Amino acid sequence: MKVHTQHHTTNLTNNLRVIQHAWYFWFELSSVFTVVKLSIVVACFTP
């Protein structure tokens, strides 16, 4: 029973790590898109 609980905890930790990486990935992706959009806006308004 103890081994099963330890395995379940490890699985939960791995899932949380995957979720953390997914959030980091989306944050980086949205940051890149924000920079691209801002550079396009600046390019449009510069003579």
From TrEMBL:
Lineage: superkingdom: Bacteria
The UniProt keywords, alphabetically, are: Membrane, Transmembrane, Transmembrane helix
Where exactly are the transmembrane stretches of this chain?
23-45
Asked if the record carries the keyword Transmembrane helix, the reply is yes
For this entry, the protein name equals: DUF3265 domain-containing protein
From what organism does this protein derive?
Vibrio parahaemolyticus
